[in-house]
């Protein structure tokens, strides 16, 4: 199946939107009407055909435009992509995993020829044709993580594993929900999760770390995370806080359906074989409330979930200023009918 | 969630490399490429030895980038529970086996300024891939390898020819001992020490490092030991209400598997923590044989690593 790539923007005039056919494949993260915090990690095994879970790395209609936005962010702020010197092997691990996955899963768009260490990569949507020597970074125009990171939707960080800890020692992060690679680089698992409310007390991070330290080659896992973003903006970074934080003030009862977007991250975790590091993929999906309510089940469930959020999370996800407007907008779509289990549409 | 992805492999080569030590080269049964791995990794090999199901861990010794085959070395242990004997007597070229994916519980510290590797006997095996990796990264390392004699020590000549003066071999039959105190007493800051070998040697090395003021974070060890045998006892499973007898030569995990109970595990050596299980009740004394639980956790009696630990006698109720 060939994809038709949309030409759209994630800043200024914000022309981003989902085509009608793309709406139903949105990874709606709420599996029940009541909000409940959980680590919700599951094996990253192939999901239904056409769903964002079909392959390890999902490519959709926003691909080309998202990559253009990433290039703009990197041009303005090169520190969004950083790797500590001991992460070079892991960078190659990442490049290999992404290239082999994309070439296998989307052969009409990507091709990889390998002859020993002589590799030839073809990316048709972005018009890239690159011959290089595997494990020789001087043969690529960027370091390996940046080279492939500029060609795959979603942010990536690479965690080194040592002293029974994970350390965020590399990453390419340009579409983050208000966290900074430049601030977090070199931190360990507990340190970079420091700001998350409630979960520390519940021992969630100790259990999650223990689980990840034993993550096996060939057995990746995934989880969904979510927040809200005003306007379909990818780069909601602390570095550019002055550019987007005031967007929250612009939400009115009239525009809330268009402005407020549910932002879902499909997070994947992969053990990298050569480096014993862990690749963390954060693949973001944005959909306006206006589009969410076109799926009746989601229109019923979203207001119920928003109404049940604990106050700490309302604050952590910065929803306070517009939650009531959002609830008022969504109320007509909840007819009180029961919803089916799971996140998918009926 | 339990266990490990299994892959069928075929033995492509068997070579006697020293007294009681054989090297096995394994290829994918369908000749597909194997996964790359990192230095210090091991695999578990599944063996159907008679009516017993064994899974023994063996370090990978080849080049981590070589995806055409894996190499392991097996010492025929005299008081073997059957695993190494099975490998020596029942496995030959063409035999098919099942293996797990590589797992690394003994990686070199990537930020170390220098690596001091200390091996005793068959404990040389994880250092084979580790040195290959360190050499490729141009990292500073030295090996100190204690053997009973040149006939008992595997790969001595190979290591000396490949790594030259970075390899130091100590022959017990010549009265040579690893001068660990001198070696560890004269290293610059940022050096990491790794030891693999028999338990007394590991204990001695860790103790020596401690006495010389080495930080715990810079000292690493790996030991593959079989679950120590004991007397038969009873395991009660709180969730399913089932009861399983653990025989004297079995681990709890093996007894559960024999009875079709799916329990979590990974390394089967008491190191990775995957099989940590809550103890609901216990009327016997727990023998903790793992390297994972902390001292307070052991004293509490509320947790047990079922791949290695057992109780002396009586019964134990687990949250399974």
Structural class of chain A: alpha+beta
Biggest sheet record of chain A = 7 strands, antiparallel
Average pLDDT, all residues of chain B: 92
Specify the CATH class of the largest domain in chain B: Alpha Beta
**Low-confidence runs of chain A (pLDDT<50, min 5 residues)?**
none
- Give the low-confidence spans of chain B: none
As for the CATH topology of the largest domain in chain B, it is: Rossmann fold
Number of strands of chain A: 10
Give the strand order, joined by hyphens, for the main sheet of chain A. Answer: 1-8-9-10-6-7-2
**SSE string of chain A, helices as H and strands as E:** HEHEHEEEHEEHHHEHHEEHHHH
Superfamily at the CATH H level of the largest domain in chain B?
Nucleotide-binding domain of ferredoxin-NADP reductase (FNR) module
Main sheet attributes: strand count, strand direction, barrel closure of chain B: 6 strands, antiparallel
Distance between the termini of chain A: 24 Å
Overview of this structure, please?
With 346 residues, chain A is an alpha+beta fold. Chain A is built from 13 helices and ten strands. In chain A, strands 1-8-9-10-6-7-2 form a seven-stranded antiparallel sheet. In chain A, strands 3-4-5 form a three-stranded antiparallel sheet, covered by helices on one side. In chain A, strand 9 (260-271) and strand 10 form a beta hairpin. Chain A is globular. Chain A starts with 19 loop residues before the first helix and ends in a 16-residue tail after the last helix. The model of chain B has no long low-confidence stretch (mean pLDDT 92). Chain B folds into three domains: 6-100, Translation factors (Elongation Factor Tu (Ef-tu), domain 3, Beta Barrel); 114-222, 3-Layer(aba) Sandwich (Rossmann fold), CATH 3.40.50; 233-318, Ubiquitin-like (UB roll). Chain A binds chain B through residues 86, 89, 160-163, 210, 213-214, 216-219, 273-276, and chain B through 4-5, 35-38, 41, 64-65, 101-104, 107, 109-111, 137, 217, 266, 272-274.
